[in-house]
Specification:
By secondary structure, this protein is of the alpha+beta class. The protein contains four helices and six strands, in the order H-H-E-E-H-E-E-E-E-H. Strands 2-1-6-5-4-3 form a six-stranded mixed β-sheet. Strand 3 and strand 4 form a beta hairpin.
C-alpha cells in the first residue's frame, strides 16, 4: 500500500472518531481489528467493528464535542503512527467519572498496523495525568 493511501486511511480513521460516522468503520477497520488500550484502563483490548462502535459511542456520550487534531503522521512499511490532541467538554460519564463540564485536552499517540488496506491493530498511548488533573482527580502532577 502506497504511503499516500496509508495517510488517507488514517485521516479517515480520525474523521470517524470526530464525526461519529459509524457507517464508515468497515472502510477503515478490518473485521478482526484489535486495539490495545493504555495500561491502567479497565479494559485492555477492544475487538472488531463492535469494539470500535462501542468505544466511539461511549466517548461521544461522555464528550459530545470530541475532536482529534492530528499533529504528526509517520508512515512505515506496515505501520502508521499519529500524534494527536483530543479535545472536548466532559459532560457525561467518562472512565466512571460523572460529567464535570470541564474542557479536556488529551495528548495521544497511536500506532496502527495496516494489512490489506485496513487497520488491523492499534496501540494507544495517552497523557492520562493531564486528564486527571483537568478533571480534578489529581491535585498536582507527579514530580519525578
Amino acid at each position: 500500500m502506497k504511503d499516500i493511501k496509508k495517510k488517507k486511511l488514517i485521516k479517515q480513521l480520525h474523521h470517524i472518531w470526530n464525526s461519529g460516522e459509524m457507517e464508515l468503520i468497515a472502510e477503515v477497520y478490518s473485521p478482526d481489528f484489535i486495539v490495545h488500550w493504555p495500561r491502567g484502563f479497565k479494559v485492555n483490548e477492544s475487538h472488531g467493528f463492535d469494539g470500535v462502535r462501542n468505544t466511539i459511542k461511549n466517548i461521544h456520550l461522555a464528550i459530545p464535542d470530541w475532536h482529534e487534531e492530528v499533529k504528526d503522521i509517520i508512515i512505515g512499511d506496515d505501520k502508521v503512527v499519529t500524534r494527536y490532541t483530543s479535545t472536548g467538554t466532559h459532560l457525561g460519564t467518562y472512565a466512571g467519572i460523572e460529567g464535570t463540564g470541564k474542557k479536556i485536552s488529551l495528548d495521544e499517540i497511536s500506532i496502527y498496523r495496516i494489512e490489506k488496506g485496513r487497520v488491523v491493530e492499534q496501540w494507544c498511548l495517552s497523557d492520562d495525568v493531564s486528564t486527571l488533573l483537568t478533571l480534578g482527580l489529581l491535585e498536582e502532577a507527579p514530580n519525578f
